[in-house]
Structure formats: structure tokens, C-alpha cells
Amino acid sequence: SSDLAKEGLTMKYKKTSFSFIHMGAPSLLMIFLVLCLFTFALLSLSSAKNNRTLSQQSADRIQTYYQASSLAEEALDQIDTILSDAHTDCGAESADTADYQKEVTEKLENCSVDGVSAFTVDFTKGEGTLAFQVPVSESQQLSVVLTLPAPSDCQDGYYRITQWTTETTDSWDGDDTYQLLSPIS
After folding, report:
1. What is 77-104 written as a DSSP string?
2. What pLDDT score does 3 carry?
3. Inter-CA distances, 63 with 67, 70, 95, 143, Å
4. CA distance readout (Å), 36 to 24, 31, 32, 40, 50
5. What would the pLDDT profile of 90-132 be if each residue is shown by its tens digit?
6. How confident is the model over 12-39, as a mean pLDDT?
7. Helix H or strand E encompassing 166
8. Is residue 142 classed as helix, strand or coil in its secondary structure?
9. Dihedral (C-alpha) 125, 127, 133, 139: value to the nearest 10 degrees?
10. CA-to-CA distance for 121 and 142, rounded, in angstroms?
């Protein structure tokens, strides 16, 4: 009878430890899976936030560029009107180049478009050049250069756009000095 009681106690003990192992392993696995899913959720959230920030910055840059481009188009509209008037005033057939250049220079000096730098006219070469800049951001500007043909060569238009580029206005001041060792004082 004592063997029987011993055997029954052993069976009870084995059943208890056996059921404890089977209940603990799935619980630990479930806790591990929940922690993994939570980590992946945080990583996804962080990635989505970074992508949204990057997209917003890109949209802001594009919007400021197109605003500057729109101002440059307004300036081109005024320039086109000035060149057309100067071409008409000087007479298209007998257009005197000096009179045309003088009138264009005077009218462009008096012309202004909000947000556009002063127009720079140069007739020292065979064809004239007209340049102006429109700020895009604090560190960029839209630079536009037009080539103005002689009044007798205006069959294809009063100007040709020879440059329409975004330029950096700030100079880069790279600091690539490293203090590797602290001086002993």
C-alpha cells in the first residue's frame, strides 16, 4: 500500500509539472509574439512619420519653385510687352539698333515686378542679354537670362530664353576640421 501511495503521489507530481510546462511555453511564446508585433508596429509608425515629413518638405520646395517660376513668367510678360512696344516705336523695317537698345534699356530700368530683382541689360555684344533673378527660398534663386536679337532679326520673337536655372545663393562653408586629441593644459 505504501508503494501504491508513492506511485500515486509521483503521478500527481508528474501531472502537475507536465501541465505547468505545457501552459508556460505557449504563454511565453504569446508574450514574445506580442512584443515582436509591438516592435514592428512602432517601426512602421516611425517610418510612416519620416516619409510624411519628407513628402511635406518636397511639396513645400516644389510649391516655392513654382511660385518663383510664376513670378518669372509675369516678368516675361512685361518684358515681352516692353520689347514689342520698343520694336513698334523704333519702326520694324528701319529699326535703328542704337535707338532700339536705348529705348529697351530705359523702359526696363523703369519696370519692376514684385519679387523680381532689377533687370540687367547688356548690349555690348552683337546680341543683347537681359538677366534677372527671382528668389525661390533663403538659399536658392531662379536665374533667367534672355538673348535679345537685333530689331531686324525679331521675326522669331523678341527674345530667346538662354538660361532658366535654379542657383544656390549661399556659399558652402564646410567645416571639416576635427579635434582628435584634447590638448593638455
Report:
1. HHHHHHHHHHHHHH-STT--HHHHHHHH
2. 58
3. 6, 10, 42, 17
4. 18, 9, 6, 6, 21
5. 655 555 777 778 888 888 888 778 888 878 888 887 788 889 9
6. 75
7. strand 160-168
8. strand
9. -60
10. 17
